[in-house]
UniProtKB/TrEMBL annotation:
It comes from Actinomadura chibensis. InterPro entries: AhpD-like (IPR029032), CMD-like (IPR003779). PANTHER family: 4-CARBOXYMUCONOLACTONE DECARBOXYLASE FAMILY PROTEIN (AFU_ORTHOLOGUE AFUA_6G11590), CARBOXYMUCONOLACTONE DECARBOXYLASE-LIKE DOMAIN-CONTAINING PROTEIN. Residues 56-139 form the Carboxymuconolactone decarboxylase-like domain. GO terms for molecular function: peroxiredoxin activity. Pfam families: CMD (PF02627). This is Carboxymuconolactone decarboxylase family protein.
Length: 187
């Protein structure tokens, strides 16, 4: 299925779009080592980032939130990837899954664990906090809420502050998955 919005060429950007474009390419997500560059060989943004140029003010606020969610919470890299992958699996977001499955493997997850996350099966995790993150993220992605028991289990496992961060992380990645789906972004 073709993308519904063609990737913007850098030469065609408005001044406001160019400001956001430059900020995105200078961000932590672009400068960290990753096999999924934010821009293609012609400089066009990939993934959810091209869509952000449609409304630069909103796109900038969204990318700022994404930076904090991705790099500014108290979660470990493994915990974040588990939560993101739970959302990607629930939303059937192939772009999110591909990017974050790679990051999860780099963080030490096994293919068996990734398959379990993707299929919703029990995931063999040695760390109880990771298991609690996955359980809560799955419930949040599926229902948009937590039962009283799930809320208590999550706060007991990693605290109220981390739970607030998890709710925000799950909401952010659900939003991104929706944008990717509606715009038909696959790469």
């Amino acid at each position: 299925m073709p993308a519904r919005v063609a990737a913007f060429r850098p030469a065609d950007l408005t001044a406001e779009q160019r400001e956001l474009y430059d900020r995105l390419l200078a961000s932590a997500r672009a400068t960290s080592s990753r096999p999924f560059p934010l821009a293609d060989e012609e400089g066009r943004l990939r993934g959810p980032f091209n869509g952000m140029l449609l409304s630069p003010g909103l796109g900038d606020a969204l990318q700022e939130l994404g930076t904090v969610v991705r790099y500014g919470t108290g979660f470990t890299a493994r915990q974040k990837e588990l939560a993101i992958l739970a959302v990607a699996a629930h939303e059937r977001s192939e772009y999110e899954w591909t990017v974050h499955a790679h990051a999860a493997l780099h963080a030490g997850f096994t293919e068996e664990q990734l398959t379990a996350v993707r299929t919703g099966a029990d995931c063999p995790l040695d760390d109880p906090a990771e298991a609690a993150v996955l359980t809560a993220a799955r419930e949040l992605a599926a229902t948009g809420d937590l039962t009283d028991d799930a809320f208590t289990a999550a706060t007991d496992a990693f605290g109220l502050t981390r739970l607030y961060e998890l709710v925000t992380l799950v909401g952010y990645y659900r939003l991104v998955a929706t944008q990717l789906r509606v715009l038909r972004v696959t790469e």
